[in-house]
Structure formats: structure tokens, C-alpha cells
Specification:
The protein has eight helices and nine strands. By secondary structure, it is of the alpha/beta class. Helix 2 crosses helix 8. The longest helix is centred in the C-terminal third of the chain and has 20 residues. The two termini are 39 Å apart. The model has no long low-confidence stretch (mean pLDDT 89).
Amino acid sequence: MSSKRYKKLPEKTRDKASDTIDKLLPVIKKNCTTKFDEAIDLSFQINNKQKKSEINLRTVINMPGGTGKNVKVAVVCEESKHSEAKEGGADLIGADDLIEKIKGGYLDFEKLICTPSMMIKLSKLGKVLGPKGLMPNPKLGTVTENVKKAVKDSKSGQVEIRNDKDGNIGLTIGKKSFSDENLIKNFNAIIETLEKEKSNISIKGDLIKSSFITSTMGVSYKIKLSKNL
């Protein structure tokens, strides 16, 4: 049963004409009628089913407007790099001892960073880390010698883009309390990243089939993109 609050929200928004992000944000925020600071979420459907292969996007974006989240970061590295990880702001730092804790099921962190030499040991924990999306990856900047920078990037507003098997991508661009300017900055950063990814893959037609925006407890609206991707 829908709540009284939800019943007051607009109906059939998917039937409405799409509009640009700057026009939709005020409407989305108006629909944020809950007592908490709702997230502003994007969803994309990409054209991942190709004749010769299936497209799987996976990359990271540094959000210029921030994310409003406090990400708990763990670092597995040699003892000589522990101080560097600490300077970057890591919440948890270790070497073989931390690997053993993870092996035992300890996963109280949201991002895991490691050095190349430690990755050899961590790679054996694929069954533990893989399903949670926590396995470090050189492409995502989480396997690196520069652990200080990696931790800072993770803490300052770095998010991952990844599509599921049906071609859906979901991510948050900020909170209701964010200024429209910062939300648009984050949105543009995502579009620019998707544009770069498209240029690196072989695809027939557009990469993005549809895109929608909503808030945590709101309704969704179709976004009109300024360019075909």
C-alpha cells in the first residue's frame, strides 16, 4: 500500500517528455518530501547486447561535486607503505594479518586498495571479495604503488561505473542538499566518462538507450541528453 506522501507525488512521469538535467533537478528536489536528505540517483540502460560480443563497462569517475559519503577504505600493503596509507586517510591498514582477517570473512570496509606485490596474495580470495565487488583492480586504480593517492581519490568522491548483465547502470550523483551546480558537475563528469568509454569500444548504434533520474523516495523522469552517446 502506498503512503499518503507517495500518493501526492506526480503520476506517470515516464509518459512525460524528457527534459535536460538542469530543468529536472528542481522538480526532483520538490519531490523530496521525506525528513532525510534523499540521494539523487541516475539509471542508464546501455546497448550492451552486440552481435559479436557483449559490452561490459567498468571504470571509475572522480566526482567534482563530491558524493556526500564517508567511504571506509582498507589498504593491504607492505609495512614500509603503512605511513603513506595513513597519510592518505585509510581507515584500515595491514599486510598478511589483514589478508587473514579478510580470508576469515572480515569485510567491514567499502573499498579495498593494495600494492601489486600484495595483489598476488589477495587474488586467491576471489570467492570472498568478488561477490562483494571488493577485489582490487589495476584499471580502477585500486592496485597501485601510490596508495596515498588511491586512498585520497576514494575518500574525495570517486565512484565506480559498472553495468549489470541486462545493461543497467545505477549510481548516485549526490544528495538533495547539494547545489544544482555540483549535481550538474557530477552528471557531466559521468557523461564525459561514458563518452570516452564509447570511443574505446566497438559498438553499433548509440551506447545509451535511455537515462532516468529520481530521488531515493521519489519518482523517475527521463533525461534528455545534449548529445547522442
